[in-house]
Amino acid sequence: MHAVRRGLLRDRCAAAGSAAALVSRPANVRYLAGGAPPGAVLLLGPGEDVLLCPRAPTGESGHGRPDEALRVDVLPVPDGDPVVEAAGLAAASGADSLAVEEHDLTVARHRAMAKAAPRLLLADLGFTVEQQRIVKDEEEIGCLRIAAEITDQALGELLESILVGRTERHLALELERRLVDHGADGPAFATSVATGPNSGQGRHRPTDRRVEEGDFLSVRLGASYHGYRCEIGRTFVIGTAPADWQIELYDLVFAAQRGGREALAPGAAYREVDRAARQPLESAGYGEGLQPWTGHGVGLEIEEDPQLAPTAMGKLDACVPVTVEPGVHLPGRGGVRIDDTLVVRPEADGGPELLTMTTKELLAL
């Protein structure tokens, strides 16, 4: 599988006139090599492919396991730079040009490569690997499915516990512990727990505020499993029947999220999916406070292409996992977020596949 991925990239580089390619962005290295020990880079040479590592791989699950068919070289000097070593290796193997990920390299590293191999023409590989990663194979989707199951388990257990009086920070730490207990590599991103006036914010960092009766409680979390990351977001009411304004706001966000989910289909424009989730909220007068996007791709990184945004260009393909995550935050009062991870599927296969299964009913906990 990884050899096939490397072969596709090699063909694209050859078509662009590059004899070799150097991949340095960690998620891209893992995608092509199977494993990405810290600091490792992947050289697709004119001969064999080489994974260059500052230190010997330890086999930690969070880093993945390098493809056994891949040559692994450990740098002789621990503080050496693998990209500089790769440039010299490419030149020594007869390459006259090397495509590199300029968006990942610092200017200093780029200059060091040019100095180490002055006759080697350095070209820009651009976002070729990121684009190759957008459509997932069924093995990748299987990892995302397990990550979602772990996330649902952790969230479900938390909802069965006593919440009143506990801090946002404590609840976030407990959720992350539960993710690991159920088999995750770790959290897919920093878990967000937001209560009362903090609820509904997209990037809230948990505080020492304690959960109170009548609060909205917004939770956003995800598991990483074999490197693949999912996302779920839910909003609940604490301890009592929800107030009328809470029911009204929740129903509005739920309708927006449902609209985005139902718009997911092969061939659907990114901006049209965003519009389906955004338009109900704008019509209700909440347009100014919305996030720049209402969803994004997921995989080896929690925020990948595509973006579901008003100005995004492109159309969805089948087997692309994305989030749909509209939300509204009312300053001083709180708000609602509902996030799901889904896989785009054609209507003949049942339409979009929902991975995150925790109920979206407005529960009073």
From TrEMBL:
Gene3D superfamilies: Creatinase/methionine aminopeptidase superfamily, Creatinase/prolidase N-terminal domain
Residue ranges of every copy of the Peptidase M24 domain listed in the record: 143-345
Pfam families: Creatinase_N, Peptidase_M24
SUPFAM superfamilies cross-referenced by the UniProt entry: Creatinase/aminopeptidase (SSF55920), Creatinase/prolidase N-terminal domain (SSF53092)
InterPro entries, alphabetized: Creatin/AminoP/Spt16_N, Creatinase/aminopeptidase-like, Creatinase_N, Pept_M24, Peptidase_M24B
Residue ranges of every copy of the Creatinase N-terminal domain listed in the record: 5-135
Biased composition (Polar residues): 192-201
Region (Disordered): 189-208
Protein name: X-Pro dipeptidase
Lineage of producing organism: Bacteria, Bacillati, Actinomycetota, Actinomycetes, Kitasatosporales
